[in-house]
Write a structure and sequence with these properties.
alpha/beta; globular; 2 domains; 6-stranded mixed β-sheet; Dihydrodipicolinate Reductase, domain 2; about 325 residues; Rossmann fold
Length: about 325
């Protein structure tokens, strides 16, 4: 099997470390792993496949000989350094929002739109974590009954906001003084109806991302999407209440039958036994979990869903590695 030289940019962050873990777990064909981060993190050592790997300072010359570069260091870093990686011959899979809405950059969830991978010009964007888990469930429903409108409310864990957010929650729970704040308010015992900054119209950037990314990934601008995103004091895992209106009539049993068969989806729905998706059950798992499936009786073709996923895995690291795996598969098919 051909092996590939892989770089991880932002290697010491929560998502970067998870990318390294997922590469090892999935036995990705890594010939050489190059770990890159800021000057502050350079010199750190991370174990991969039982061997210590040094973290190096990211520079524009860091990508010589690299085949695949997984970026998770923020939009500004991606904008500055991804072009250097592409110029050096690497395929960039970027986890930030920097490239997602660029017309010539595919935005990919492998279960949904793997065909878009080869439309890349050197960069493939990894979608927002909350968008990924939603479209994995919605795409087969859309193909069957055509979605008109989606109303989604998210309950997002703090790991989506990085290590500083985790430190803030843990510090507040421990009643430490002088806790460095990631959020504008206390997060312990609280819910913040704000993720990212507010824009015109009163929505946050996170909410706008969900709207625009859903349409791009699903390949259908006619789908109306509105979102409210909240941060909850849960370490790992994002939860979503999703209300869908279809154009076509459906039977509720057909929805259950369809979702049981979707790759990457686990159906957890036995309300008589209080079985439904919860973040605590999703941690360290790659599937998207769906339950609380019921008809919305207020409209003709309405459906309610509860969707949960590990935001560091399927919502970020695993999806990026899956994109790389699909790209390798498509390269092999083209050369066969």
């Amino acid at each position: 099997m051909k092996q590939y030289n892989v770089a991880v940019v932002g290697a010491t962050g929560l998502v970067g470390r998870k990318m390294i873990q997922v590469l090892e777990e999935r036995k990705f064909p890594v010939a050489k792993l190059r770990l890159l981060a800021s000057a502050k993190s350079a010199g750190t050592t991370i174990v991969f496949n039982g061997q210590p790997v040094d973290v190096n300072k990211l520079t524009k010359n860091s990508f010589k000989g690299i085949d695949i570069a997984l970026f998770s260091a923020g939009g500004a870093i991606s904008k500055e350094f991804a072009p250097h990686a592409v110029k050096a011959g690497a395929l960039v899979i970027d986890n930030s929002s920097a490239w997602r809405m660029e017309p010539d950059v595919p935005l990919v969830v492998p279960e949904v739109n793997p065909q878009d991978i080869f439309k890349n010009k050197g960069i493939i964007a990894n979608p927002n974590c909350s968008t990924i888990q939603m479209v994995v469930v919605l795409k087969p429903l859309h193909d069957k009954w055509k979605i008109k409108r989606v109303v989604v409310s998210t309950y997002q864990g703090i790991t989506g906001a990085g290590k500083k957010a985790v430190d803030q929650l843990e510090g507040e729970l421990a009643k430490k003084t002088n806790v460095e704040k990631k959020f504008p308010h206390q997060i312990a015992y609280n819910v913040l109806p704000q993720i990212d900054v507010f824009v015109d119209g009163g929505y946050t950037k996170e909410e706008i991302k969900m709207v625009n990314e859903t349409k791009k990934i699903m390949g259908d601008d006619s789908i109306e999407v509105t979102a409210t995103c909240a941060r909850v004091p849960v370490k790992g895992g994002h939860s979503e209440s999703v209300n869908v209106e279809f154009e076509k009539q459906f039977k509720i049993e057909d929805v259950f039958d369809l979702l049981r068969k979707v790759p990457g989806v686990t159906l957890l729905d036995d309300v008589a036994k209080s079985i439904y998706p919860m973040p605590i059950w999703s941690q360290e798992k790659d599937d998207v979990f769906v339950g609380r499936i019921r008809r919305d009786e207020t409209i003709a073709n309405g459906l309610n869903l509860w969707i949960v996923s590990d935001n560091l895995r399927k919502g970020a690291a695993t999806n990026a590695v899956q994109i790389a795996e699909e790209w390798i598969k498509q390269v092999k098919n083209q050369s066969a």
